[in-house]
Amino acid sequence: MTTKPVDSPYLVPFDGSFSVAAAPTAPPKDALDDKALEKKLDKRIDKMAKLQRKLYADDRFALLLVFQAMDAAGKDSTIRTVMSGVSPAGFQVFAFKAPSKEELDHDFLWRTASRLPERGRIGIFNRSYYEEVLVVKVHPEYLRGQRLPGLPDTGPDEGFWESRYRSIRDHERHLSDNGTRVVKFWLNVSHEEQHRRFLARIDDPEKNWKFAAGDVAESRHWDRYMEAYEQALNATSRPEAPWYAIPADDKEFMRATVADIVCKTIEDLPLAWPEPSEKDRAEMLALRSEIAAGLGVK
Predict the structure, then answer these.
(1) The model's pTM
(2) Which strands, in side-by-side order, build the sheet including 180-188?
């Protein structure tokens, strides 16, 4: 499938020049205020509902949205809000945590491949196969559980990670070639804002359930994670499966931006409402006449 990514200031370039240090975590100075952003988001949600119905009726394409972020960046709330107008029959969400024993007995793409969206539907991955070049790169000791042949005792080298990037690129190109549009969002929250949100989870009893001590432990590896994100995004942002590094310090701006990109992505697909054959149309008109006569209307 010929693809052209939605133009955006947050599109990760395809030439390997993306820099995490240069990527903004806050909205631009001329961004809309929260009230205007809410209105914009509401319009996008309504539009997305209509576009999703056409995607479903057309039944030739699927859309896969991948969300990756550090803890407390707002993945769950963004997915919930942006997709709030879409029929539950038209999309599905899968969250991927630590792999199970069964999943470890397969290659690293297996567990997500079995959760891909059907034609006509929107699939959402809350975390994904990218964990294998993010969390696992920060914690290479996790590879021991995968029992990979040929892995040196000293641990993975750059060739190992490049092999995984290549597998991901090939996988996403295969999906694109077969009608699944892949769009990936990195919700780019700052370290300071992450810690403010951790404090909010601790201080608000109704948010205590969201807090996990392990999130703080992972935050201590911030620099290593940022390096892993930069390398992964540069290695895998391609026209057929682009990355967008969305500023995530302001949730209203983040959600409106994500919704805008999703809407434009669906709009760019060559969708069409199914047209009945001449025979089906003639049958429909005959049945219409029968139904109308019974109701006493024209």
Answers:
(1) 0.94
(2) 91-95, 122-126, 62-69, 180-188, 243-247
pLDDT score at 2: 61
The Cα–Cα gap between 52 and 293 comes to: 35
- CB atoms < 10 A from the CB of 25, how many? 21
The single-letter DSSP state of residue 195 is H
- For 278, other C-beta atoms within 10 Å of its C-beta total 7
Helix 251-267, helix 34-58: angle, nearest 10: 30
Buried b (16+ CB within 10 A) or exposed e, 203-234: eeeeeeebbeeebeebbeeeeebbebbbbbbb
Specify whether the CB–CB gap between 245 and 186 falls below 8 A: yes
pLDDT digits (tens, 9 = 90+) for 144-181: 899 898 887 778 999 999 999 999 999 999 999 999 99
Is-contact 85 49, C-beta < 8 A? yes
